[in-house]
Every structure is written in structure tokens, then in C-alpha cells.
Amino acid sequence: MKVITADHLTKRFGDFTAVDDISFEVEQGEIFGFLGANGAGKTTAMRILCGLSKPTSGRGTVAGFDVTRQPERVKASIGYMSQRFALYDDLKVSESIRLYAGIYGVPGKRIAQRTDEILASLGFEGERDTLVKSLPLGWKQKLAFSVAIVHDPRIVFLDEPTGGVDPAARRQFWELIYQAANSGMTVFVTTHYMDEAEYCDRVTILVDGKIEALDTPAALKARYGAPTMNDVFFQLARGARRGAD
Predict the structure, then answer these.
(1) Is residue 11 a contact partner of residue 56, using CB atoms and an 8 Å limit?
(2) Where are the alpha helices (DSSP H) in 63-136?
(3) Which of 54, 56, 112, 234 is 20 to 30 A from 15 via CA?
(4) What's the alpha-carbon Rg for the chain, to the nearest Å?
(5) Over the range 116-125, which residues count as b (16 or more CB within 10 Å of their CB) and which as e?
(6) How many Cβ atoms are within 10 Å of 43's Cβ, its own excluded?
(7) Is 186 within 8 Å of 32 (Cβ atoms)?
(8) In what order do the strands lie in the sheet with 16-27?
(9) Nearest 5 degrees, angle CA 63-CA 22-CA 241?
(10) Full-model pTM
(11) What does the DSSP assignment read for 14-63?
């Protein structure tokens, strides 16, 4: 079942084309990697699909809703974790979970139970009353992911969620992604860490706003005769002209 579609999506800012005529589909329960260097257009494309920005042309649907005509329905159907996901440092861990549960419309009677479930799943039972600012960065990112899906959405969008996190914490974060996907949730994740591409069911490689490749990691490595996804990416992106966003 297709839960995300992009049909010739394009986004221009004046004379600059940030997203250039991209088309793809994502299946339910899939971990879909949206890869590219800084400035490739990943975040712009994700913002369109999340109903946060309108495309200049083309069409997109998420959870069956049109991203241009029904952006509020899209937002209500997804979880979203941005590069700078706003956890409030002066809230306790449990307060953060309750806050976002309320924002996402979790019924009041369910919030306390959901809070306990998340604390247990993260192994944070002993951190219930810890201030967020006291948590290590990797722990903050895991908490941010968990509150982004506190309402059990069908789809979660993650925009470079492991940026600045050490390798061990990144692996732990990806364990949470696998758990979400195993539950049937679709995970759409952008990253510029090419080793993380190996964890995805399929990946798209974006270069200068265009899709240069889309397939499973194994198929892409075979196609380009490359031992790693980093080598695949280097072959495709070495001619990129853009700098950072």
C-alpha cells in the first residue's frame, strides 16, 4: 500500500530550483532513506511532504491527503522530527512526553499510560523527573523521536535525526526506527551519513535537487560496482554544484 507519493514535485525560490521534478512512491511500513549532501534539497522536499511548504508545481500525497490542498490533514496524520527538534530544556522528561501527547491530540485518559510506555521503552524509568537539559545528546534525540510518534502515526518524517550524535548513540537511535517500522509505521528519513543508508529498505540519492538513483542499497551497490553506499554516493554526487542550504 502506497502511503507517500511524489509526482513531479518542484520547488523554486526565485531563479533557484531547490527541488527539481522529483517523483517516487513509498510503501507502508518501509524505511525510506532520502539521501544527499547538505544543500541537495532534502529538507525542502520533506517540508513539502509534511504540508509545511507548497510546491511550485507537481503533486504529492501523504496518508491519502494532498499536500497542497489538505496540508492540515497531512500534519494530523504524521509525526515529524526536524533537525532542530524543540525539546524544552527546563521541562522534566515526563513533562515533555505529556506536553507533546497533548499537542498531538492523545486523549487525556491515555496520556499517563503513554508516558509510562515511552519511559519503559527507552529505559528512562529512572529519568522521569530529570530535566531534559541534563540528558546526553543521544538520549535527547531518542526522547525527541519518541514524542514525535507519541500519537502512533502511520508515517513519521525524520530530518537528519542523528546529526552530531556519536556512532554508538546513532546505532541505538536506529534500533528505535526498526521498532517503529516493525510495528507497521512508515519511516521517511533524511541523512547525509551514507552508512545509515545501509539500514534502509530503499534509498533515494538526491543531487542538486534531482533524484539520481532510487533502489535498495544492495541493488545500488551492485549497479555501481561499489562496496559501500558511501562509494555509490561519491560516484553520483562528485559533480554536484551546490553548497549547503
Answers:
(1) yes
(2) 71-77, 93-103, 108-122
(3) 234
(4) 18
(5) eebbeebebe
(6) 21
(7) yes
(8) 16-27, 2-13, 57-62, 65-66
(9) 135
(10) 0.91
(11) TTEEEEEEEEEEEETT-EEEEE--TTSSHHHHHHHHTTSS--SEEEEEET
